[in-house]
Write a structure and sequence with these properties.
With 390 residues, the protein is an alpha/beta fold. It contains 14 helices and five strands. The chain has a five-stranded mixed β-sheet with strand order 2-1-3-5-4, covered by helices on one side. It is globular.
Length: 390
């Protein structure tokens, strides 16, 4: 049920580059290969999502200023980055069928020609409100605070800022200060550039959310924890707060995991398997919902032209019909159960069920709940049934 996005992939490479950078600055004589690895990871983060270049430049500058091996940092770091870009160029040559520079075209079309602005333009401060609303209240507000702290650290000089924080809590150590400054170097240029770009979406900042948390934890949460743990009167309240936080996080985690039964991923996989067995395959969607239309959701009036063609097998044709009495002979039939997710639909005439995405635990959990609470608890759930009528 997990889709690897450009945001999550670039975030992974950014974290690898940060971890390698911290290993470099913690050693008196780092290996030259380590600098090349940092450059390679930053190059891969750039290839995954071009905007990550700004976070990468911030981290590279921090590493250059923090290490004594500046010549090795510059030369081998650039070599590693070039290697990643050349690898990406070969992938682009294979995918596009010609030697191209997608990053240049991407920037030209979206920024110079203004294509991105066609999807909407927001003011520079939009991200601060978006993060507060997008995440559950305390987490969204915490991320906003993390970004604000990173900008404050950059404005007052990161080294001076975090040294002041450490001295107030009996020194948290140089390693924590280095980690916090590295996170600041990642967050500030990346967020600043995205604030200046007119079109904004929450997912654009996903690659550096982990760095926002690092800034918040190392500069505010950890000093506050050390301050409270030293005072006996606050220790019981601190323990209660930690337990409450764990319970709250577990509830959110379970909620997010259970909502994954709504996904069409198993349907896509089953249709792919069936399409490989025959020369031509027909899919009839009774409710008029074409799963291959991105962002269509349950809107029956949306365009039936597939917008995610890479998911749809080439020999599969999709027909949408809202009349449940239609003869589905010779096709597969897809039904999405929304109104009553606790009851399975009746099989169309002459059809057999080959896929049902409703987990077994739903019926078990529903049977344990009172009648009045049952529908309320599962109202956000829907599942998909695929019938074979051939």
């Amino acid at each position: 049920h997990v889709r690897t996005s450009s945001e999550s992939m670039s975030a992974a490479f950014l974290m690898l580059s940060l971890a390698t950078s911290l290993a470099i600055v913690s050693r008196p004589s780092p290996r030259k290969l380590s600098f090349a690895l940092v450059g390679f990871f930053l190059g891969m983060a750039f290839e995954a999502r071009f905007q990550t270049a700004f976070a990468g430049l911030g981290l590279a500058l921090w590493l250059f200023l923090s290490t004594r091996e500046k010549w090795s940092c510059a030369v081998y770091g650039v070599m590693g980055g070039v290697a990643a870009i050349l690898l990406g160029a070969c992938a682009d040559r294979w995918g596009y069928g010609a030697w191209v520079v997608p990053a240049y075209r991407y920037a030209t079309v979206n920024l110079v020609e203004g294509k991105a602005a066609e999807f909407g333009v927001s003011p520079w401060w939009w991200y601060f409100f978006a993060f507060r609303k997008m995440f559950v209240a305390p987490y969204g507000a915490a991320l906003v605070l993390g970004v604000a702290t990173a900008f404050a650290a950059a404005a007052f000089s990161a080294r001076r800022f975090f040294s002041l924080v450490r001295t107030r809590v009996n020194s948290a150590g140089d390693a924590e200060s280095s980690l916090a400054m590295a996170a600041v170097a990642v967050v500030v240029p990346f967020v600043l550039i995205h604030m200046l770009i007119g079109h904004k979406e929450e997912r654009f900042l996903y690659p550096v959310v982990w760095a926002m948390w690092m800034v918040l934890l190392l500069s505010l949460a950890l000093p506050l924890y050390r301050y409270l743990v030293q005072r006996a009167s606050w220790q019981p309240w601190l323990r209660r707060a930690i337990v409450l936080q764990c319970v709250f996080s577990l509830v959110l985690l379970l909620r997010g995991a259970f909502l994954e039964i709504n996904t069409h991923a198993p349907v896509f996989q089953k249709l792919q398997e069936e399409s490989e067995k025959v020369q031509n395959l027909s899919l009839l969607v009774l409710e008029g919902y074409n799963p291959y239309v991105f962002h269509c959701d349950l809107d029956k009036s949306c365009d039936l032209k597939p917008t995610t063609r890479f998911l749809q097998p080439k020999n599969l044709t999709v027909d949408c019909n809202e009349l449940p009495g239609i003869n589905p002979a010779g096709a597969l039939v897809l039904q999405t159960v929304v109104d009553n997710p606790l009851q399975s639909p009746s099989a169309p005439t002459g059809c057999r069920e080959i896929l049902n995405t409703r987990p077994a635990w739903v019926s078990v959990a529903a049977s344990l709940l009172p009648e009045g609470l049952r529908q309320q608890a599962f109202k956000q759930f829907r599942f998909h049934v695929l019938w074979d009528c051939r």
